[in-house]
Write a structure and sequence with these properties.
Elements: E1 2-7, H1 14-28, E2 32-37, H2 50-58, E3 63-67, H3 82-86, E4 89-94, E5 112-116, H4 119-127, E6 133-136, E7 156-161, H5 179-193, H6 199-210, H7 220-251, E8 256-259, H8 263-267, E9 273-276, H9 284-288, E10 291-296, H10 305-312, E11 316-320, H11 323-329, E12 336-338, H12 344-353, H13 356-373, H14 376-386
Parallel strand pairs: 1-2, 1-3, 3-4, 4-5, 5-6, 7-8, 7-10, 8-9, 10-11, 11-12
Helix pairs in contact: 1-14, 5-6, 5-7, 7-12
């Protein structure tokens, strides 16, 4: 097959790294894969589509793949999708909930092949009756280029890489009482209590409780309005989760190294805490290789690349639950799960992994499972299968 992989963001961004890794994996399998750097055309945060359109018209490709579905909504003057008109399969690989990329929900694209990192994201797309085919698949990983440190000689007992997003505010509470305010509060409450943090379930349950009749998939205008509305409660819960989980480790007195600017000002100086400045994505695996236990955050609604790269670096991974992670790591033998709705459970899970024998066993099992079925080469194989190639 001939693939065109769209690079829509800067070189250091994870999406760009993933595009290059996938290109190499597809090439190793005997497919022709080319990366199209559309980031060079960005002006004021926007990349015009004419350069990509010219490229597609000049050469015949079987499929175009874009992380986060950038350019997936491009249309001709007739209103028809560019990719449908050219007979090219468009693969949009969502590494986050689709509400954060509204263009990924554009119904104009009929020949869509969508990949989601979580089954609940796929369910959301199905609820809004998005045309095309969909599947669930985590991103791949690359094994370390150099031998990893012996598990027991690693410097950092517990490591977490996390951006500091500030303390989230419940801004909706300042509004006068209304169905919208009650809906917002209900969605937040249900997300906080749900281990899987399913946005679709939180919306449907809250609407049923409040007696609201709106349902996704019946009206495109309503779907677009809810896509914008739901970003606030989901973002709020994500930020709360991040703070609560990390604080549970800190309050338990666990020896934690935090990589990310801003946490020192929030948590303060403590004898058992080490702070590191934020580093580039490409440099994070080396830090994982110096850690015995690595904390994965927002697994219920994220791509879980922390877990994948940490396992490949030989660290034991602690994470909130994710069905795809559970399948990839082979269950509890390869990963330490905790319930994100009970933050104290995170400290318990990490504490268990701090036992050297337990942590080393989980790290070894997790590394073996990810090496077996979580590398980019395996993802390339699954991609080709998804597109129906023989």
């Amino acid at each position: 097959m001939r693939f065109l992989l769209i690079k829509a963001v800067a070189d250091g961004h994870p999406y760009s790294r993933f595009a290059l890794s996938l290109q190499r994996a597809l090439s190793e399998l005997g497919h022709e894969a080319r990366v199209s750097d559309q980031s060079i055309h960005v002006v004021n945060g926007v990349a015009p589509a004419n350069h990509l359109a010219s490229e597609l018209q000049a050469a015949r490709y079987d499929a175009v793949l874009s992380f986060s579905s950038f350019f997936g909504g491009v249309t001709l003057s007739s209103g028809m999708s560019l990719f449908d008109a050219l007979g090219v399969k468009f693969v949009g690989w969502q590494l986050d909930h689709p509400i954060y990329a509204p263009h990924s929900l554009a119904s104009v694209l009929q020949g869509r092949y969508a990949i989601y990192s979580n089954p609940n994201h796929l369910r959301y797309a199905q609820a809004v009756k998005l045309p095309g085919r969909g599947m669930t698949m985590l991103p791949g990983g690359e094994p370390p280029r150099a031998p990893t440190k012996d598990y027991r000689s690693r410097e950092w007992p517990v490591f977490v890489a996390a951006s500091w997003n500030g303390v989230p505010q419940r801004l909706w509470e300042q509004l006068e009482d209304s169905p919208g305010k009650r809906l917002m509060q209900g969605v937040v409450d249900r997300l906080l209590a749900d281990r899987d943090a399913s946005l679709l379930d939180a919306l449907n349950d809250t609407c049923a409780t409040l007696g609201l009749g709106g349902r996704l998939g019946d009206d495109a205008g309503f779907d677009a309005q809810m896509c914008s509305f739901l970003r606030e409660p989901l973002t709020y819960v994500r930020h709360v989760d991040r703070i609560n989980v990390i604080r549970s480790l800190v309050d338990a007195g666990l020896p934690v190294t935090i990589c990310g600017v801003g946490w020192r000002g929030f948590l303060g100086e403590r004898r058992h805490l080490t702070y590191l400045d934020e580093v580039k994505f490409e440099d994070v695996p080396a830090l994982y290789g110096n850690s015995r236990v690595v904390l994965n955050l927002n697994a219920a609604n994220g791509a879980c690349e922390r877990a994948i790269y940490a396992a490949l670096a030989g660290a034991a991974v602690a994470s909130d639950f994710s069905q795809p992670l559970d399948e990839l790591f082979g269950g509890d033998e390869g990963i330490g799960f905790f319930n994100r709705a009970e933050p104290r459970a995170a400290a318990d899970a990490v504490g268990r992994l701090l036992d050297l024998d337990t942590g080393e066993s989980v790290a070894l099992s997790g590394q073996e499972e990810v090496m077996r079925s979580g590398l980019w080469r395996r993802r390339a194989q699954q991609l080709v299968e998804f597109l129906g190639a023989t």
